[in-house]
Request: fold
Amino acid sequence: MVDPGIRWRRLLALGLAAFELVVLVVGLLHPALTVRHVDVRGEHRLAAGEVVAASGVDRGGSILGVDPSTVAARLQRSTWVRSSQVSAQLPDRVLIRIDEWKPVAVYQPASGPGYFLSDQAVALGPLGDQDSAGDLLPVQALQAAEPRPGARVLDPRLLTALVNIQRTLPRLIGQDVKVFTVDSCGNLTLVSSRGWQAQFGRMLTGEEIATLHDKVAALRAVAPNVDYNSPDLQTVNVMNPAAVAVR
Reply:
């Protein structure tokens, strides 16, 4: 025989569950709790409308149906969104704050448009007709196909090294980087604004990338004997930094 106290507790629990369900349904359908405003903060490359579309938040849906963690997960699918914070504010407003990736370079494949690169060497998206590379580091992949947004196109350690070379080369030898090129074998070449080239050799592994420090130092070491402003200078081969070849 079931204890009457247990029976009443079960009935009470069922009654409370039914009441909560009714409250939830009423809340979901109540017009006062309809999402009417989706505010976006922190957008630069992305338009506010693109952020709202990526979030999946439905204007006209119930504010009670907005799950901030689910919305944030949707936003992370955008290659430009580094992080996001989402909050549902009663009675009718959703606030989205995003932190976008800031491009550090422009990656030019063998064909097609250039792509903005994050500091993680991820292709964020193609340059549009109105976009300018500005002071971003240009990297030309001589035989590479056009990447898909979100793909990593270089070793991030290599990209970091190239950005640092671009920044320090004027101070080291009074020259500017025009572009870095990488061929299908991973061979890296610096093309200066004067037109001469510095050949660094293959840069595919961490050990090879680490040699860039000594190879750039070799460019400075031979500077007293090399006129980097000469129109006759063609190449400076620093593949072996202990035996620099100048042509």
